[in-house]
Design goal:
271 residues, mainly alpha, 58% helix
Length: 271
């Protein structure tokens, strides 16, 4: 086996003062939201949309991600455990979060937001597609700092030995957290370039379609290199993350087809 691997054993806490500790995961999660907010701030300013609507949008999305990601993990991955320990469901610091649950909750939150603030649903979905991949990338970097959601053993020179987790067995493994973070940042970069160059900016559903289809295609493929997360996935031809990625991928393809066939551009943010 190649010995040019990377020993990975970071302290998950940046610092501790008394009983308070700031963890890398929380810091990177916050940085993801700040980055997404900054992108949307630029969009709202560029298109002369009231910034008060952005503040409310940020609040809606924050709640959706927190609640949706937690419930997604509870119901998709460990319902057998949590139905016997209902009091632990709100303990987001104990247990896991699931990005597919966050995706579902974000869609619901955006629909509610659209109804309340009378914003065109396609305009909003397409602009959100610019920001969400950046947040997702930061979350995966947080997983890396926690030495969690790592990949299968590998002989590649960039394999990480996750020394903080005894279950990793001191074997070089695919840093699937980095794979996902890089993929998500590339998706965001492509969409932002298209937006800045006004390419497809008035084709309703195009950006969100590209976002969903490319992000969940990347997620589906990277799952082949990822270690099984929960016991029931052993022996499955496709793991839970892949099965949950399929409908989002198909939804994205559907949005792209709708966008290309639609001859009525979105030029007004209002309904």
């Amino acid at each position: 086996m190649n010995t040019l691997f990377i020993n990975w054993n970071p302290n998950p806490e940046i610092f501790t003062i008394g009983n308070f500790g700031l963890r890398w995961y929380g810091f990177l999660f916050a940085m993801g939201f700040f980055s997404a907010y900054s992108i949307l701030y630029y969009v709202f300013k560029r298109e002369k949309v009231a910034l008060s609507k952005l503040d409310w949008l940020t609040f809606y999305i924050f709640l959706a991600v927190l609640i949706g990601a937690r419930l997604g993990h509870v119901f998709f991955y460990e319902w057998d455990y949590y139905r016997a320990n209902l009091g632990e469901i709100p303990m987001v610091w104990k247990g896991g979060l699931a990005s597919h649950g966050a995706a579902i909750a974000i869609i619901i939150a955006l629909i509610i937001y659209v109804k309340q603030f009378k914003v065109n649903v396609w305009w909003l979905f397409d602009r959100m597609a610019l920001a969400i991949p950046v947040t997702a990338a930061f979350v995966r970097l947080g997983n890396l700092m926690n030495s969690e959601i790592y990949g299968l053993p590998t002989s590649m020179s960039w394999g990480f030995v996750f020394r903080a987790d005894p279950a990793a067995g001191l074997l070089p493994r695919h840093p699937t957290q980095l794979y996902e973070a890089i993929a998500y940042l590339l998706i965001a970069l492509v969409l932002i370039i298209l937006y800045r160059k006004n390419l497809g900016i008035n084709k309703p559903g195009l950006f969100v379609g590209i976002f969903l289809s490319s992000l969940f295609a990347a997620r589906f493929l990277i799952e082949f290199f990822k270690e099984v997360q929960v016991d029931f996935e052993h022996g499955m031809s496709l793991d839970m993350g892949q099965w949950l990625s399929v409908p989002f991928f198909l939804l994205g393809v559907g949005f792209i087809l709708f966008s290309l066939r639609n001859k009525h551009p979105v030029t007004d943010k209002k309904l």
